Amino acid sequence: MLPRRFLSPLLAFALGTLAALSVTHAQDKKDEKKDAKKDEKKVEPKKLPEPSIPPTAAKVAYGPHERNVLDFWQAKSDTPTPLVVCIHGGGWNGGDKSGYYNRVKMYLDNGISMATINYRLIPQANEMKVSPPVKAPLEDAARAVQFLRSKAKEWNIDKTKIGATGGSAGGCSSLWLAFHDDMADPKSDDPVKRESTRLYCAATDGAQVSLDPKVTREWLPNYTYGAHAFGLKSLDEVEAQRDKLKDWIKEYSPISHVTKDDPPIGLYYTGTKGAKVGETHPDPTHSPILGLMLAEKLKEVGVEVTFHSSTTPNEKLPTAQAYLIDKLKK
What we know:
By secondary structure, the protein is α/β, with parallel strands linked by helices. It has helices at residues 4-43, 104-109, 122-127, 135-150, 152-155, 169-179, 213-219, 235-240, 242-252, 288-301, 320-328, and strands spanning 57-61, 69-73, 81-87, 113-117, 157-167, 201-205, 265-268, 305-308. 39% of the residues lie in helices and 14% in strands.
């Protein structure tokens, strides 16, 4: 048996060891829970809605990237049908084609086929070193239109009656397509690239119309949107480098491409009533001032435009969908 004088230190050592083991065990349990939560997040991606009406063709690849996919619904008709191409919003940073599933029935009931697309977002563009990053979502939208035209015979599409719609960034993409010169390449070995990118009409919700900070800040002093389009962090940076970026700003701003031969446009906005240029608005990114200024430019060159806002609602065609149905059925 050990002498009494050794028992107290030994007992203290043992108790200390047990306490340390207990703390370590408790910490391990906490770490395990954290890891489990991380694993749960990894294995449980956000569930996207399913369409209530099954697509005629689902998740069809129109390009090489995993986000170059679309869903297509074919309207019943003995003759080729008009088509609406839906381009989701999300600031070119997020969003999904499923955001337009609730529009399918109305288009089909009116004899109009519909497609809704995914496209490369700014994060993927940055990973791929696309310069400027906005080139990826915009050119993907153009490619999707060309692809759908290439399927005209198979999917009973009227190539001459293709409209586009989108909200926010998707609206900006739609307007860019509507105003841009045809991007078809007749000499391409790729039959899809030989197809036209031009539209018959377009209607948008809360769309951005320019990526030029000098212009947008004259309209709306607290405007902050668009720097990520050029791989920058703030609009102040874009403005400071405006001379250097001027070619990109012009190329990717829809309003820069407006000409008298552009198709009819429907511009739909909510937000501040009685909006005036030079005011500070709570949501400048989707302010009706953007639509007002674009509508003014379109009228100047003679392009047919319908403008709807909280101040001047259009009772005959109160939504972008109503506008497209009206135009495409004529």
